[in-house]
Specification:
The protein is built from 7 helices and 5 strands. This is Disulfide bond formation protein DsbA.
């Protein structure tokens, strides 16, 4: 799923990283903001793909509150997937940004119909794409995109998933999102450890929720 693009004007190469996200996941949102910083200071171009926490959690015994969240989470990811299917890959990131700003920064995750309508309008996409929030019409392609991420890292993780240069990893889970050279250092380290055969996990207790700064 990854490739290297050569920039002929300078003779340098740009790595293509693939990033899978669910629009409802606050940790994926944090990581996506970090990935935007990485693009500024490393020779990396990001391609954005959907995966789905709703798909990931199908058939699992979930607490009632989280099960309700997973039911709501179908809407935004289905709309992004439909926009990609009908209008092309280039709309994925702008639509994700518009949805995520409202869901995470404005804390409007309980108001998804309005959030979806506003996000579509902001990026100039047809309003009737909102109907896909409640439709399984294009779920086959959504599930296929999700499965590509899971095939890279396994089904014991969530979103986001990042793949580059033949290696893939879940996360990183980080807050607040690093900026500048700190973002670059985290990228270098994540790619380095993920490239080691047999490497699985570095972890410590999370003591803070997402800091949307």
């Amino acid at each position: 799923m990854t490739e290297t693009v050569t920039t002929t004007e300078t003779g340098t190469t740009t790595d293509t990283a693939d990033f899978w996200f669910d629009p409802m996941c606050p940790w994926a949102w944090m990581t996506s903001r970090w990935m935007g910083e990485v693009e500024k200071i490393r020779d990396v171009h990001v391609r954005w793909h959907v995966m789905s926490l709703s798909v990931l959690n199908e058939g699992r015994d979930l607490p009632e509150e989280y099960a309700a969240l997973m039911e709501r989470a179908w809407g935004p990811v289905r709309v992004v997937n439909a926009a990609r299917e009908i209008h092309g890959q280039d709309v994925v990131k702008p639509l994700y940004d518009a949805l995520g700003t409202r869901i995470h920064l404005q804390e409007r995750g309980e108001d998804l119909p309005a959030v979806i309508d506003e996000a579509l309008a902001e990026v100039g996409l047809p309003a009737d794409l909102a109907r896909f929030a409640g439709s399984d019409e294009l779920d086959a392609s959504l599930r296929a995109s999700h499965q590509r991420a899971i095939d890279l890292v396994g089904d014991e993780v969530g979103t986001p998933v990042v793949a580059v240069n033949g290696v893939a990893f879940f996360g990183p889970v980080v807050t607040p999102s690093p900026k500048g050279e700190d973002a670059g250092k985290l990228w270098d380290g994540a790619v380095a450890v993920a490239s080691i055969p047999g490497f699985y996990e570095i972890k410590r207790t999370r003591t803070s929720g997402p800091i949307f700064s």
